[in-house]
User: What shape does this take?
Amino acid sequence: MPLLKPDLRAALHRSMGADLGMFEHALEQPPPVSIRLNASKPTGDQGEPVPWCATGRYLTERPVFTLDPCFHAGAYYVQESSSMILEPVFKATGLSGKRMVALDLCAAPGGKSTHLRSLMSDDSLLVCNEVEPKRAHVLQENLWKWGHPNVVVCNAQPDRFTHLQEAFDLILVDAPCSGEGLIRKDAYAMEQWTPALVRECELRQQRIIDTIWPTLRPGGFLIYSTCTYEACENEEQIERILSDHDAEHVAISGLEELGPVRGKNGIGLRCLPHLVRGEGQFMALLRKEGEWNERTAVNATHAPKPVDDPVLPLLVRPDELDFRLRREVWFAAPASHSAFIDRLVHATDPIAPGVPVAEGKAKQWRPHPALALSRLLDTSSVPVIPLNTQDALRYLRGEALRASQATGFALMTLSGLAAGWAKGAGNRWNNHWPDPWRIRMR
Ligand code: SAM
Assistant: This one.
């Protein structure tokens, strides 16, 4: 860890006060390695629990994740442990188990989205948005691998959501920030830091919050987080929301013993690397004034189904799904959220209005790679080829696999987890693992 730049050190001194020495000492220690397990894709437990997250685990060393087939099949997400305080903050909303629609506005690469998706009830809908197109595609890949069906992915500026007034029960703004909390892990975080960047981030965060606030339902919740220590991007940002909007602060209790501390003036939570086993993180919970009522499930307005589609019999409960065609890909989404998704499509043109299940031209449909990884797939409806670790790595590198008599599409499984498709061609299985996802490492 290189020495702190003088102006950054001065800024950190303002944030940490007398704790700066302990903080600097913590920066000299190696960053902890942590993952969050995907409870819907169990492959065995490992590691030491992260105290504030039921599925969070610390690992004793950093494995080469790229060479672990389970990583590619979505069995876990590699995530910095302090970010996982999303779990107690979400629980403080009281929305656990409730039917809801949530928006993760600044979502890529998807750490908090995949976590939030696991915390929400299965019948809820999560809309994940990312403004940067390339990052939106990484977000999409991570959500597909996570495998939950009730997810829509958008690539839109926040103001595109303003047509959806009072639409969301929960909004997560994991805001772009000056990144001070990452300096131990990421040399670039220190390199890019300037006082001007802090000011720029503060103003951008303000714009993002003011734009998205009207889309929150009365009685709904906003979770605001950053990975910086700057009060102007954290507690002061919350104080400003409290004075400009119909909001109240919700304090998070029960974490005092575990390391995260209250922020300035009792606002939000701060994770500091000398007090927790993790990096820097700030998170606060706000509630919009008004009464909140749980959404009732509405009867589906069935969109056209790809009726000639040979993929339909591969789906679990296709009658509960609606299908939308976008650029030669059929997307499946819960019919009970159809009316909402239609409004979302109109406002933001999502890049994935559901889970893609089939792709192709005219009637030449083939199963989409995301379907293999999704809970929407009825695995008893397809031939399954279990791969050993060596063949799994060959498959993930994009190689064809030898066969004796291979025909049609088959599902390749790795350590018991569904991963992707291969198409039989007599004495070999042709590889349908997407090219951009292939392992390049030898
Ligand atoms: N929530 C993500 C996770 O847990 O993996 C990390 C999000 S990162 C801290 C902030 C994201 O905000 C970045 O992906 C960035 O591209 C996006 N962003 C940048 N400018 C933005 C803006 N003006 N409005 C919304 N999002 C923006």
